[in-house]
Design brief:
Blueprint lengths: L6 H6 L43 H14 L3 E5 L2 H9 L7 E5 L4 H13 L3 E5 L4 H9 L5 E5 L11 H10 L3 E5 L4 H4 L9 E5 L13 E5 L4 H13 L5 H11 L2 H19 L5 E5 L9 H7 L7 E6 L3 H9 L5 E2 L9 E3 L1 H5 L9 E5 L5 H13 L1
Parallel strand pairs: 2-3, 2-4, 4-5, 5-6, 10-11
Antiparallel strand pairs: 1-7, 6-7, 8-9, 9-12, 11-12
Bound molecules: pyridoxal-5'-phosphate.
The site of pyridoxal-5'-phosphate (PLP) has 17 residues, from α3.
Length: 380
């Protein structure tokens, strides 16, 4: 327990925030883009010059995320993609990144073109196969190993300790996309990750009204310095108002994540042997191939994301989705409202996602309503 209390206290009180001047328990929005100097040219606050890199509101949210993840420092970015791409941009031409075949689709697509254009070597491994990860990493000199756990949208859970050991054994660094695990269920730095990445658009904000990204580092090393420069020079910082909203969303993250995990587990269990369903993919089910790893590194729940595969092909699955009434047909995840998506349709040509799969982001609604909604869509 730190001096700001346990996780729930840290979050609910936004790091025990209190403005001593006004007594306010909610931080003000500080929109200034520039910071003044006194008569002698000294800055009033030596840490603040210009808002492309210095933001009071971003720093408040960064401090809490950093504490949650047990890191040395945190930077917020204008989106998850801005954060992830900045991290990859710290690699030099000629260096090598190894990434999973199953990962957030847009990042995978960006990696393919960026790495080809900038002469960064890119190789993919199968996240469901530890031996494959090992042989791809060792096939050439690797500088960065990227994992996403659980991985979108088939929820492979990668053993972070083993991935860290592997990366470090060849002198590489491990980056963990922990968006789906949230900073509450898994703390990748405890398992040896060098960097933790989040699309903060998802559970960290939780209200589907802010696009944001975060990187937390285990130590302030050379790559961290480069990442800070990328953000400062490219101007990818999260805006002031968005940072303020993010912090507000974070104050209830523990309650939202807890409820989403409970609801997801109930739904997964309910539909795992249900007529018309061929498979429920959820790390909390004992039938999940990585359940043991999930038990080891996901504490307090298995997340709010699950996928269901249905009997029948693309058309029938899309029709099931079309009949849903409470689940909103939309992309994204981690908000208070439940969403459903046909990933293969959304990803289009080249998608590795099966045609009969729907991805569900389970929210905090009444779980009986959600169960009934899927049932009526299936039973028609
Ligand atoms: N990583 C994962 C696992 C995601 O689900 C997403 C977005 O869906 C991203 C990264 C990209 O984040 P953003 O949409 O905030 O740019």
């Amino acid at each position: 327990m730190g001096d700001k209390g346990r996780v729930e206290t840290l979050l609910a009180q936004a790091g025990h925030y209190l403005d001593r001047e006004t007594g306010s328990v909610v931080p003000a929005i500080q929109p200034s883009t520039t910071f003044a100097r006194d008569e002698t040219g000294d800055l009033y606050d030596e840490n603040r010059i210009y808002a492309r890199d210095h933001s009071f509101n971003a720093e408040m949210a960064e401090a809490i995320l950093c504490e949650l993840e047990g890191g040395a420092s945190c930077k917020l970015f204008a989106s998850g993609m801005a954060a992830a791409t900045a991290l990859v941009q710290t690699l030099r031409p000629g260096e090598r990144i190894v990434a999973p075949k199953i990962m957030y689709w847009s990042l995978r697509a960006w990696l393919i073109t960026y790495c080809a254009d900038w002469n960064v070597e890119l190789a993919f491994y199968d996240p469901s196969n530890e031996e494959d990860m090992c042989s791809v990493v060792k096939a050439a000199t690797t500088h960065m190993l990227w994992i996403e756990t659980p991985a979108n949208p088939t929820w492979e859970v990668v053993d972070i300790s083993k991935a860290a050991e592997l990366a470090h054994s060849v002198g590489a660094q491990l980056v963990a996309d922990s968006t789906v695990s949230t900073p509450l269920l898994t703390k990748p730095i405890e398992y040896g990750a060098d960097y933790v990445f989040h699309s903060a658009t998802k559970y960290i904000n939780g209200h589907s009204d802010v696009v944001a990204g975060a990187v937390i580092t285990a130590k302030e090393d050379m790559r961290w310095e480069r990442l800070c420069k990328v953000r400062a020079q490219q101007g990818g910082i999260l805006g002031t108002f968005e940072s303020w909203l993010l912090l507000r969303g974070m104050r209830t993250m523990h309650l939202r994540v807890e409820r989403a995990c409970e609801n997801a587990m109930r739904i997964a269990q309910h539909f795992q042997n249900y007529p018309g369903v061929s498979e429920v993919i959820y790390p909390g089910l004992t039938s999940h191939p990585n359940h043991e790893t999930a038990v080891k590194q996901m504490t307090g729940g298995f997340g709010g994301m699950l996928s269901i595969r249905f009997n029948g092909g693309r058309e029938e699955t899309a029709k099931i989705m079309g009949r849903m009434k409470y689940f909103v047909r939309a992309t994204s995840l981690g908000g208070v409202e439940s969403l459903v998506e046909h990933r293969a349709l959304v990803e289009g040509e080249g998608s590795l996602v099966p045609d009969d799969l729907l991805r569900f982001s389970i929210g905090i609604e009444n779980v009986e309503d959600l169960i009934k909604d899927i049932e009526q869509a299936l039973d028609c």
